[in-house]
Design a protein that fits this description.
Length: 267
């Protein structure tokens, strides 16, 4: 009896999947957009483009296999431009972004694509700098820096930090790391499992930085999304196929492959 029920459930799920595929419009073109953030996204044309790009490539291959007239293209753009396109156009797959309350209604959230834990980092030589909270930073009159137009900048503003008084901004974390080593400011936020290697990639000693405290409110997984004007049929198709990738262990395996190589590299 149990096997019979499972068989019926499987047939119903398959039937729904077929209905979703058949309901989609012809000649759909998906733009898969993201920004440079190694080792998640390195370059869309390289043999080892980054684990998020490889995951999305496999997803798009499965989408095309399920419906041959769906095509896709990959582009790496500045974050702000990719975000703007995803707000204006349908069928935009924008990936490796944080899921926040402010963004919740702006996208369809397909699935988690990467872990993400954010910490403030400083130079080890600054032994007198040991804040444990945002209030400690404000009270110490310490200049920090964050990426322009990021969630981190919005968080600082909400906590009473003033631009060019308590914090400054930079266009990309690469710029931020360089500015930190040139003593332009005292701390910046970096992803914990990538900080040392990203510092080394820029020609600095990754052992010269250390984490100060975790930014709990922004330490959440990064997501794969679809633009809000996308048809619900396409949304459901990608959700189903992406859930398959996760269940099969494909997503975790690709992540681990890149992170093992990335973190074992010499500085």
């Amino acid at each position: 009896m149990k096997q019979y029920i499972l068989k019926i459930a499987s047939l119903c799920f398959l039937a729904n999947f077929i209905l979703i595929s058949n309901a989609l419009s012809d000649n759909i073109h998906i733009k898969a957009l993201s920004y440079v953030f190694a080792p998640l996204q390195i370059a869309e044309t390289e043999e080892n483009p980054g684990y998020a790009i490889e995951i999305v490539r496999e997803l798009m291959a499965r989408v095309t296999k399920s419906q041959a007239d769906i095509t896709s293209e990959f582009k790496i753009l500045p974050f702000k431009r990719a975000y703007a396109i995803s707000e204006m156009e349908p069928n935009v797959l924008f990936y490796s972004i944080s899921r926040t309350e402010a963004r919740e209604s702006n996208f369809y959230w397909i699935g988690e694509i990467s872990p993400y834990k954010l910490y403030f980092f400083k130079l080890k030589k600054n032994t007198n700098l040991n804040p444990t909270s945002f209030q400690d930073i404000l009270d110490s009159d310490t200049m920090i820096a964050v990426a322009d137009n990021s969630n981190m900048e919005k968080l600082l503003l909400n906590k009473g930090f003033l631009p060019n008084v308590n914090f400054m901004t930079y266009p990309h974390y690469h710029n931020g790391i360089k500015m930190l080593f040139h003593d332009r400011f005292s701390m910046l936020p970096l992803t914990s499992f990538l900080a040392k290697r990203n510092t080394c990639q820029l020609g600095f000693n990754g052992d010269d930085i250390e984490s100060v405290f975790k930014i709990n409110s922004l330490s959440n997984p990064l997501w794969l999304t679809l633009s809000k004007s996308t048809s619900i049929e396409l949304v459901n198709l990608l959700k189903k196929l992406y859930a398959d990738l996760i269940e099969e262990g494909y997503v975790e395996n690709i992540q681990n492959k890149y992170l093992d190589v990335w973190n074992s590299g010499e500085c």
